[in-house]
Each structure stands twice: as structure tokens, then as C-alpha cells.
Design brief:
Layout: H1 3-8, H2 25-28, H3 33-49, H4 54-66, H5 70-83, H6 88-100, H7 104-117, H8 122-135, H9 138-151, H10 156-168, H11 172-185, H12 190-202, H13 206-219, H14 224-236, H15 240-251
Helix pairs in contact: 3-4, 4-5, 4-6, 5-6, 6-7, 7-8, 8-9, 8-10, 9-10, 10-11, 10-12, 11-12, 12-13, 12-14, 13-14, 14-15
């Protein structure tokens, strides 16, 4: 029985985890670059009128973050905290931005403050766990991600990242369980398909790997890493011509923007 036929026989859980933190109502509405830029202009005016109101800096920082203007985001989150150290959203947001700038220790420290104040936040444990993976501290990452799952068993992102930890420890049996759970909880979670495909590939389960990767590519047909992985799988199956065509298709695609979600690209030789 194929993996997906097996998965289809299992009842899908109806609850879907909240995979991001939106500390203010305004930030949830910023769905486009234009909306984020308009929000920055609005906050500029409000800050000019009320320069000591911390919430204005937080909301402008969140808009900067969405635009990937990370240094301005960090500066505004820091301004908010100087005015009001109880701005918990600023600790969370600054922790997110600092990690993307490469300051992992400072990022983990800020997220730690947020977690101390919000010990029931599955999302915060997940985000700190990811940064601990980036740092290479798998013991601490596992602890955070297990806590995230304990707080919210429907947190697909936490299951996926916990799978990454187990896979890096050569525990593909446990990794597969968590990747499959992430897919069951959120069938649109493309990264989990990629990671599950890697586990099947390095376990020499090539047909299962191909099924999973193809399912992920249905969600993102131009995902460069998954195309490269597919080429490696096809080569392992002896389908050399298809493998070469797939790697040619991937060659000029941009690198994947998987900043927030850990993958296992480094865990296998995916060159056909």
C-alpha cells in the first residue's frame, strides 16, 4: 500500500495549528508589500505625534519585518522595549529578526524572554527550537520542539522541525512519523513533503520517496530543492533521462526561500 493511500485511510484531524504569531490585529492584515508600506507611513505619522508610545514602534517594526527590512525592524522593536520593557511582542519580533540577521544567541535570548512570559505558547517554543537547530544545539532544540508539540499536538510546524532533529540524529523512523504527522495536520505544508522524501531517499525507499516529492511539487512546482531531490530519486530508480531533464528544469530556478522552516537538504547527497 502506498504511503498516501495509507494516509487517506486515516481520519484527518480537523484542527489546524496557528503557524505564526501576529501580536497585533493590524499585522495580520498586511498581506501585500503595498499594505506594509502604507502601514509604515501611517506609523511614521503616529510616532511623530506620540513618540513615547511603544505600540507604534512595534507595529512599524512588524511591517518592516514583512518587507524583510530586518535592521529597521530590530531598531524599532528595540525602541519599543526602551520605552516599555513589557512589550512582549517586541521581544518575539526582535528575536525573529535577529536570527535572520545571523545573531542567533541574541535571537534565542529574546525568544527566551517571551517564553518566560508566555509559557503556554507552542509557537514561541517552535520558533526558538528552529533557531536552536540553526545553531546546532540539537538537545535544546529537541526539548523546545517536544514542548511545542505537548502544548499543541496540532502544531504541524513543530512536528516537522522535530522530525528534522531526529533525522539529523539518524533516527529516520521517528523522523518519518513526525513528517507524516505534519502532512496529515496540514496537507499544504510543502516542506514536510520534502523532508519526508529525504528520509525515504536515504532509506533507499525510492518509490515512496518519489510519491512524496511529487505530492510536494504539486504544491510548489518550481521548488528547486525538491526538483533536485526528485532528480536524485529518479537516478536511483534507473530513470536517467528523466533525472537529467528534472535537474535541467531546476538549474535556473531561484534558491528556495525556506528561512523559517528547517529542511534536510544537507542530510543527503541529492546530485543524480
Amino acid at each position: 500500500m502506498s504511503f498516501f493511500k495509507h494516509l487517506a485511510q486515516k481520519p484527518l484531524l480537523l484542527a489546524v495549528a496557528l503557524l505564526f504569531l501576529a501580536p497585533t490585529a493590524a499585522i495580520a492584515e498586511l498581506k501585500t508589500r503595498e499594505a506594509a508600506e502604507a502601514a509604515i507611513r501611517q506609523q511614521d505619522q503616529l510616532i511623530a505625534k506620540e513618540p513615547q508610545r511603544a505600540a507604534h514602534y512595534v507595529q512599524r517594526a512588524e511591517a518592516y519585518y514583512l518587507l524583510n527590512d530586518l535592521q529597521h525592524a530590530v531598531d524599532d522593536f528595540s525602541s519599543a522595549l526602551r520605552i516599555d520593557p513589557q512589550q512582549d511582542a517586541a521581544y518575539f519580533g526582535r528575536g525573529m529578526a535577529l536570527a535572520r540577521l545571523g545573531f542567533l544567541d541574541a535571537s534565542i535570548a529574546d525568544l527566551g524572554v517571551y517564553i518566560q512570559r508566555h509559557q503556554d505558547s507552542s509557537v514561541a517554543y517552535t520558533k526558538r527550537g528552529v533557531r536552536l537547530i540553526w545553531k546546532g544545539d540539537l538537545d535544546a532544540a529537541e526539548q523546545d520542539l517536544k514542548r511545542a508539540v505537548a502544548l499543541d499536538a496540532h502544531n504541524a510546524e513543530a512536528h516537522d522541525d522535530l522530525g528534522v532533529v531526529f533525522a539529523k540524529r539518524q533516527r529516520c523512523d521517528l523522523a518519518v512519523t513526525h513528517f507524516a504527522t505534519a502532512i496529515e495536520l496540514d496537507p499544504s505544508y510543502q516542506k514536510a513533503y520534502h523532508n519526508l522524501g529525504i528520509c525515504f531517499y536515504i532509506s533507499n525507499q525510492y518509490q515512496a520517496a518519489l510519491e512524496v516529492v511529487d505530492a510536494g511539487l504539486q504544491l510548489d512546482a518550481e521548488n528547486r530543492s525538491s526538483l533536485v531531490l526528485k532528480a536524485a530519486i529518479l537516478a536511483a530508480l534507473g530513470r536517467k533521462t528523466e533525472a537529467q531533464k528534472t535537474i535541467d528544469d531546476a538549474e535556473f530556478l531561484p534558491e528556495d526561500n525556506w528561512t523559517e522552516r528547517s529542511t534536510l537538504r544537507e542530510s543527503a547527497n541529492t546530485q543524480p
